[in-house]
Specification:
The complex is a heterodimer of chains A (about 170) and B (about 90).
Chain A (H helix, E strand, L loop, with lengths): L16 H16 L7 E6 L6 H14 L4 H21 L6 E8 L2 E9 L26 H9 L2 E6 L3 E9 L2
Helix pairs in contact in A: 2-3, 3-4
Chain B lengths: L2 E4 L5 E7 L4 H8 L6 E11 L1 H16 L4 E4 L3 H9 L7 E2 L1
Parallel strand pairs in B: 2-3, 3-4, 4-5
Antiparallel strand pairs in B: 1-2
Helix pairs in contact in B: 1-2
Classes of the chains: A alpha+beta (about 170), B alpha/beta (about 90).
């Protein structure tokens, strides 16, 4: 069987490296250049509160093209603002934050990628107790608490260089 | 665009979007409030935790002085957020 240059069969696993290379190339392409249709959009934003206006426009356009209702769009905007402003406040720096939105059937996935040396896992933050009287309540933690109320799933991964946060909203 | 106005009848009128980029401005406006007031949110489209924090801090300061804010005309999305945050325990909401 003809082999392309650079492809070698792996006798130990029986797996053809051509197939592996093709898969890795396709995966790299998918991650670097996501399909430019309305179901998946991605953009980088400067780490500044003033980016919020552009972020809301970005989400607004996605909401319209994916026929999200007002409540769904509100929840997604709210959750994105909370994650983004956490990155602005607690990981300031020159790097932009990449935000992606993907509609996959009955769910919307919101992805964030931020360069961050130290992990800051928002899913592990101590839960606030919203039932406390005003005298005992303290500021802080409300945004993350509300993300968990408004979205259906929150995932955090740190790969040593980047923090990757994925929020999922069921939109059926 | 966020806006804060005080109407002739003393009601505080909020409009637009109260997000993190506008919360400092909102704080400056609310810091001038020193007695019980009605806050009309009829034209407020959106509020984030930064905006909630401004309202919370104002309410806490006013409560310490025996005063308080009453919130009226919240849209359904904002009302839901207030309910999740249990701000219905902290504010009089109509």
């Amino acid at each position: 069987m003809a082999k392309s240059a650079g492809c070698t069969p792996n006798s130990a696993s029986g797996f053809d490296s051509c197939i592996l290379n093709a898969y890795l190339s396709a995966e790299l392409c998918r991650r670097v250049m996501p399909p430019s249709n309305s179901n998946h959009i991605e953009k980088s934003f400067a780490k500044d509160f003033l980016s919020l206006k552009a972020i809301f426009e970005f989400v607004g356009a996605f909401s319209v093209s994916n026929k999200l209702d007002d409540a769904q769009s509100f929840s997604i905007k709210f959750a994105i603002e909370e994650v983004f402003t956490n990155m602005v406040k607690y990981n300031p720096g020159a790097s932009d934050v990449s935000i992606s939105l993907r509609r996959d059937g009955k769910k919307v996935e919101v992805g964030f990628v931020d360069v961050e040396n130290e992990p800051f896992d928002i899913t592990q933050r101590e839960e606030i107790n919203p039932n406390l009287p005003i005298e005992l309540r303290r500021p802080g933690g409300l945004g993350i608490f509300l993300i968990k109320k408004l979205m259906d799933h929150v995932e955090y991964v740190h790969d040593g260089v980047h923090s990757r946060i994925t929020l999922t909203k069921i939109v059926e | 665009m966020f806006d804060f106005k005080i109407a002739e009848d003393g009601q505080i009128l909020l409009s637009g979007r109260l997000d993190a980029s506008q919360s400092e401005r909102a704080k400056k406006e609310f810091d001038r409030i020193s007695r019980s007031s009605v806050v009309n949110l009829k034209d407020l489209e959106y509020i984030s935790s930064a905006g909630l924090g401004v309202l919370f801090a104002t309410q806490k300061r006013l409560k310490d002085a025996g005063q308080g804010l009453k919130l009226i005309n919240l849209n359904q999305h904002i009302r839901d957020v207030f309910r999740y945050a249990r701000f219905d325990l902290i504010f009089e909401i109509e």
